[in-house]
Amino acid sequence: MNETSYMEHELNSQPDTWREAARIGALTGGPLPKAGERVAVVGCGTSWFMAQSYAALREGAGLGVTDPFAASEAFLGAGRGYDAVVAITRSGTTTEVLRVLDSVKGRIPTVTIIGDPETPAVAMSDETVALPFADEKSVVQTRFATTALTLLRAHLGEDVSRAVSDAQEALTAPLEQEWVDAEQFSFLGTGWTFGLANEAALKMREASQSWTESYPAMEYRHGPISIAAPGRVTWLFGPTPAGLEADVVRTGARFVHHARDPLADLVLVQRVALARARARGLDPDNPRSLTRSVMLEAPAVP
């Protein structure tokens, strides 16, 4: 494996791609949903988890009902009354996303946030927001996902300048050997950071074939904490529920929580996943059984 992987280059570029996405997101009059609209957000894998975070942020800001769906499980019938569908796709070729766009065409306006603008999703969408500067060569997503979420945070009116500076700091923060060697990780979040917890767990699985789980932080004590033990890590994004750290420490597991912006803390997890992949002799750009885009064959006609 090359010393410098695509994944390493791409995750290191995030402060720059976030700045550009924030600029685009803050522009007025664009195609992204307006305040008060009922919105469904769809994606697959990493993009689905970014949809979860965006939905929690938008509803939390009082800007309208926002439901996140895995594209394969999207409930977009007329009775739900959506004013817009937002699709998030790096490749623009993922079968399930294309099927959603096709199924609502002419019925619900669509806007797709996309990495590669020369792909079928563009023609199938009413509007697009292209982020070609955040597209990636590595199969394992890092910067496209976080850049798309930064775009959406800026569009919601957030000042993301702290997130950008925290991401820069996360790129140089020390990586603890305990994280590289840990047997197991549990990632936790609350509100919008639950999507980040899900994404952190996925990054570890994809890049380094690690045993990882993710839960809402308040659900962790309802069973999942039983997996916590010495040599394992519980990593929290966002606010710490009262007493949770003490409960984890009593198990002997390592409790990890940082004060930086939670999205920037995800950058640190990406670095840990890369380090764990290298320690195991794995190629994070070409993980086992995965491709850059899932393109399914059309079902046979009976």
UniProtKB/TrEMBL annotation:
Transmembrane segments: none
Keywords: Isomerase, Repeat
Gene3D superfamilies hit by this protein: Glucose-6-phosphate isomerase like protein, domain 1 (3.40.50.10490)
SIS domain span: 29-170
InterPro entries per UniProt: GlmS/AgaS_SIS, SIS_dom, SIS_dom_sf
One MF term in the entry's GO annotations: carbohydrate derivative binding
Coiled coil: none
GO biological process terms held by the UniProt record: carbohydrate derivative metabolic process
Keyword flag Repeat: yes
Annotated protein name in UniProt: Sugar isomerase
Organism (species): Streptomyces chattanoogensis
The organism's taxonomic lineage, starting at the top: Bacteria, Bacillati, Actinomycetota, Actinomycetes, Kitasatosporales
